[in-house]
Amino acid sequence: MTRIPFPQMKRSLVAILRGIRPEETAAIVDGLIGAGFTAIEIPLNSPDPFRSIELAVKRAPADVLIGAGTVLNVEDVDRLNAVGGRLMVSPNVDAEVIGRAARHGMVTMPGVFTPTEALAACAAGASALKFFPASVLGPAGINAISAVLPREVPVGAVGGVANADFAAYAKIGVRTFGLGSSLYKAGMAADEVARRGHEAMAAFDALGDLGR
């Protein structure tokens, strides 16, 4: 089993750009990187996602993780690797998918909801865990499950999470958040996405020591 460590980020926020089109990618990715994002996920149920990922990779500095979400099979892991993606996010726990991504040197973040899924993901070598949908479990549910998880595997909250929710999760030790519709919706203008990106960064910074 190979585990690629989840990187240390000044602000551990992942931008989720579900529905983005290749022709929109450059401006939106530039705006988010300018706002301070160092992890950007383009789900594979977006239009021509591998083209968008490839464009994003070419624009991003080396310290910015660009990758795919909704990755369901090893073929798509290989395609992601071919376009330079270094972040693999999935909605489920598939040991083969996690393992293939790790062999490519990717950071992996599978989706989990139960202790069984979370421990299976850890055993498969996940870099971090994506509790999804976090809005259903809430901080209390994630906190209860986290008590049995290995401390070296970071926990992230994704799904129904917005800026106003950061503090409640940070109080139980969650430092990583995936931002979807609160940050970007298909067709949104790049300047609006950038504005929301700056607001998300400010909200994270307002956590102070809770966010570290």
Structural description of this entry:
The protein has 212 residues and is of the alpha/beta class. It has 8 helices and 8 strands; from the N terminus they run βαβαβαβαβαβαβαβα. It has an 8-stranded parallel beta barrel with strand order 1-2-3-4-5-6-7-8, surrounded by 5 helices. Helix 1 (22-35) packs across helix 2 (49-59). The longest helix has 16 residues, at 190-205. The relative contact order is 0.17. The model has no long low-confidence stretch (mean pLDDT 96).
Keywords summarizing the entry:
about 210 residues; alpha/beta; eight-stranded parallel β-barrel; 8 helices; globular
Going by helix content, strand content and strand pairing, the class is alpha/beta
Question: How many helices?
Answer: 8
Mean pLDDT rating: 96
Q: In angstroms, what is the radius of gyration?
A: 16 Å
Poorly predicted runs: none
Give the strand order, joined by hyphens, for the main sheet. 1-2-3-4-5-6-7-8
Query: How many DSSP-defined strands?
Result: 8
- Measure the end-to-end span: 29 Å
Summarize the structure.
The chain is of the alpha/beta class and 212 residues long. 41% of the residues lie in helices and 17% in strands. The longest helix is centred in the last third of the chain and has 16 residues, at 190-205.
Fold blueprint:
Blueprint: E1 13-16, H1 22-35, E2 39-43, H2 49-59, E3 65-69, H3 74-82, E4 87-90, H4 95-103, E5 107-112, H5 115-123, E6 129-131, H6 134-146, E7 155-158, H7 166-170, E8 176-179, H8 190-205
Helix pairs in contact: 1-2, 1-8, 3-4
